[in-house]
Protein backbone atom coordinates (compact mmCIF):
# COMPACT_ATOMS: atom_id res chain seq x y z
CA UNK A 1 0.00 0.00 0.00
CA UNK A 2 1.24 3.46 -0.90
CA UNK A 3 -0.13 6.57 0.82
CA UNK A 4 1.01 10.03 -0.19
CA UNK A 5 -0.84 13.32 0.36
CA UNK A 6 -4.06 11.53 1.26
CA UNK A 7 -4.01 9.33 -1.84
CA UNK A 8 -3.85 5.60 -1.10
CA UNK A 9 -3.03 3.02 -3.74
CA UNK A 10 -3.30 -0.71 -3.07
CA UNK A 11 -1.44 -2.54 -5.86
CA UNK A 12 -2.65 -5.99 -4.75
CA UNK A 13 -6.35 -5.09 -5.16
CA UNK A 14 -5.80 -2.29 -7.71
CA UNK A 15 -7.92 0.09 -5.60
CA UNK A 16 -7.40 3.83 -5.04
CA UNK A 17 -8.76 6.24 -2.43
CA UNK A 18 -8.50 9.98 -2.06
CA UNK A 19 -9.22 10.57 1.59
CA UNK A 20 -12.16 8.28 2.35
CA UNK A 21 -13.52 8.34 -1.22
CA UNK A 22 -12.72 5.35 -3.42
CA UNK A 23 -11.98 6.25 -7.04
CA UNK A 24 -12.28 3.95 -10.05
CA UNK A 25 -9.42 3.95 -12.53
CA UNK A 26 -8.97 2.19 -15.86
CA UNK A 27 -6.12 -0.30 -16.10
CA UNK A 28 -3.72 2.19 -17.73
CA UNK A 29 -4.72 5.04 -15.42
CA UNK A 30 -4.04 2.82 -12.40
CA UNK A 31 -0.70 1.65 -13.84
CA UNK A 32 0.36 5.26 -14.49
CA UNK A 33 -0.64 6.37 -10.99
CA UNK A 34 1.10 3.36 -9.43
CA UNK A 35 4.31 4.02 -11.41
CA UNK A 36 4.37 7.58 -10.08
CA UNK A 37 3.19 7.17 -6.47
CA UNK A 38 5.51 4.21 -5.88
CA UNK A 39 8.39 6.63 -6.52
CA UNK A 40 6.91 9.68 -4.82
CA UNK A 41 9.36 12.56 -4.66
CA UNK A 42 11.35 11.20 -7.62
CA UNK A 43 11.19 12.28 -11.25
CA UNK A 44 10.00 9.44 -13.49
CA UNK A 45 10.97 9.88 -17.13
CA UNK A 46 8.46 9.54 -19.93
CA UNK A 47 10.59 6.73 -21.40
CA UNK A 48 10.28 4.81 -18.13
CA UNK A 49 6.53 5.36 -18.07
CA UNK A 50 6.17 4.13 -21.66
CA UNK A 51 8.13 0.97 -20.80
CA UNK A 52 6.38 0.23 -17.50
CA UNK A 53 2.81 1.32 -18.24
CA UNK A 54 2.49 0.72 -21.97
CA UNK A 55 5.15 -2.02 -22.19
CA UNK A 56 6.80 -0.46 -25.19
CA UNK A 57 10.07 1.27 -25.94
CA UNK A 58 8.61 3.38 -28.72
CA UNK A 59 6.09 6.17 -28.60
CA UNK A 60 2.74 5.34 -30.16
CA UNK A 61 1.71 8.98 -29.73
CA UNK A 62 3.37 11.95 -28.13
CA UNK A 63 0.11 12.63 -26.30
CA UNK A 64 -0.47 9.15 -24.83
CA UNK A 65 0.96 9.97 -21.41
CA UNK A 66 -0.55 13.47 -21.34
CA UNK A 67 -4.06 12.23 -22.07
CA UNK A 68 -3.94 9.53 -19.39
CA UNK A 69 -2.29 11.94 -16.95
CA UNK A 70 -5.16 14.39 -17.53
CA UNK A 71 -7.70 11.70 -16.63
CA UNK A 72 -5.73 10.71 -13.49
CA UNK A 73 -5.40 14.33 -12.37
CA UNK A 74 -9.11 15.00 -12.95
CA UNK A 75 -10.14 11.94 -10.90
CA UNK A 76 -7.80 12.93 -8.06
CA UNK A 77 -8.89 16.60 -8.16
CA UNK A 78 -5.38 17.78 -9.07
CA UNK A 79 -5.62 21.09 -10.99
CA UNK A 80 -3.27 20.79 -14.00
CA UNK A 81 -2.64 24.56 -13.90
CA UNK A 82 -1.47 24.38 -10.27
CA UNK A 83 -0.86 20.72 -9.55
CA UNK A 84 -0.11 19.69 -6.00
CA UNK A 85 -0.04 15.91 -6.53
CA UNK A 86 1.57 15.22 -9.90
CA UNK A 87 3.91 17.82 -11.33
CA UNK A 88 5.63 18.02 -14.69
CA UNK A 89 9.36 18.64 -14.63
CA UNK A 90 10.05 20.04 -18.09
CA UNK A 91 12.53 18.01 -20.07
CA UNK A 92 12.78 15.39 -17.29
CA UNK A 93 9.43 13.71 -16.63
CA UNK A 94 6.72 13.57 -13.99
CA UNK A 95 6.83 13.48 -10.20
CA UNK A 96 4.22 12.51 -7.61
CA UNK A 97 4.98 15.09 -4.96
CA UNK A 98 5.77 13.67 -1.52
CA UNK A 99 4.29 16.86 -0.03
CA UNK A 100 2.09 19.60 -1.45
CA UNK A 101 4.39 22.27 -2.96
CA UNK A 102 3.27 24.95 -0.45
CA UNK A 103 3.83 22.52 2.45
CA UNK A 104 7.36 21.80 1.27
CA UNK A 105 8.33 25.45 1.64
CA UNK A 106 8.27 26.15 -2.07
CA UNK A 107 6.10 29.06 -3.10
CA UNK A 108 3.55 28.39 -5.81
CA UNK A 109 4.61 29.87 -9.11
CA UNK A 110 2.14 31.68 -11.27
CA UNK A 111 1.23 29.87 -14.46
CA UNK A 112 3.15 31.21 -17.41
CA UNK A 113 1.21 32.74 -20.25
Automatic annotation (TrEMBL):
Presence of keyword DNA-binding: yes
OmpR/PhoB-type domain ranges (all copies): 1-98
Segments of the chain annotated as binding DNA: 1-98
Lineage: superkingdom: Bacteria
Keywords from the UniProt entry: DNA-binding, Phosphoprotein, Two-component regulatory system
A Pfam short name: Trans_reg_C
SMART domains per the UniProt record, alphabetical: Trans_reg_C
Protein name: OmpR/PhoB-type domain-containing protein
Organism: Nocardioides fonticola
Lineage of producing organism: Bacteria, Bacillati, Actinomycetota, Actinomycetes, Propionibacteriales
Amino acid sequence: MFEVQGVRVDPSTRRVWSGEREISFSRKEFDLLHALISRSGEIVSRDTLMREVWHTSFWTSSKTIDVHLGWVRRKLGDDPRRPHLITTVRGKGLRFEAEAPHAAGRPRQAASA
